[in-house]
Amino acid sequence: MVVAVYPGTFDPLTYGHMDIIERAAGLFGKLIVGIYENPSKQPLFPLELRVELVKEAVTGLSSVDVRAFKGLTVDFIHQIGGRVMIRGLRANSDFEREFEMALMNRKLAPDIELLCLMTSSQYQFVSSSLIKEVAKLGGCLEGMVPDHVAAALRKKFSLSIEVATGKPQNVKLVAKD
User: Fold this and answer.
1) What percent of the chain lies above the pLDDT cut of 90?
2) Alpha helices per DSSP H over 59-146
3) Which of 55, 90, 136, 154 is catalytic?
4) Contacts of 65 (CB under 8 A, 6+ apart)
5) Could you tell me the sign of the dihedral formed by the alpha carbons of 23, 27, 32, 36, in that order?
6) What does pTM read for this prediction?
7) How far apart are CA 128 and CA 11, in angstroms?
8) Sheet strand arrangement including 84-89
């Protein structure tokens, strides 16, 4: 059985990620979603919560497992017996970055194949950074993230407002000209 790995920070998990997970799960006997702890990034959610959120999202996919990892992605793939790295592409800018990483990964681990899946058109505009910005400003996340992820985002940003003001508030921030 070929084991494929879909690595990422998933901060937060989006329907774009889920699109890739579901399609990759249909192609391989086993798919591991590898949640990367990137020491050079300040994540919105701690690693443990990101793992929980992804696990909840993939509960109906029996061939999918979720694991956290540190270090080089290719080392993680080797450790778990993987043969294929899955990546999702939304636009040309994604391709350029993925191409550079693919060349480095090929140099480090020539035995690991890369499979890039184009994100379905309805999710091509969705990115974790845009989701965080929309959530921070109190915007609607429907159709962009699973409900439990939207709830975690609302909780995260409402707590930020509570800490800043000293009392819990439900507010919607609106930009003024």
Assistant:
1) 77
2) 73-79, 92-108, 128-136
3) 90
4) 30, 31, 32, 33
5) negative
6) 0.86
7) 6
8) 64-69, 30-36, 3-8, 84-89, 113-118
Contact 112, 32 (CB under 8 A): no
Tens-place pLDDT, residues 134-146: 999 989 999 999 9
Q: Is 90 a catalytic residue?
A: yes
DSSP-derived pairing of the beta strands 64-69 and 30-36: parallel
Residues counted in the chain:
177
pLDDT digits (tens, 9 = 90+) for 149-169: 999 999 998 855 444 555 555
Give the span between the Cα atoms of 95 and 73, in whole angstroms. 18
Active site residue 17: yes
State yes or no: is 128 an active-site residue. yes
Residue corresponding to tokens 């109190």: 138
What angle, rounded to 10 degrees, do the helices at 47-57 and 147-165 form? 150
Is residue 140 within 8 A of residue 154, CB to CB? The reply is no
pLDDT of residue 174: 39
Instruction: Note every long-range contact of 134-137, with CB atoms under 8 Å and residues 24 or more positions apart, other chains counting.
Output: 136/173, 137/173, 137/175
Whether a cis peptide bond, with omega within 30° of 0, leads into 168 is no
Distance CA 102, CA 148 (A): 33
Cα separations in angstroms, 121 against 37, 54, 89, 145, 155: 29, 22, 11, 15, 29
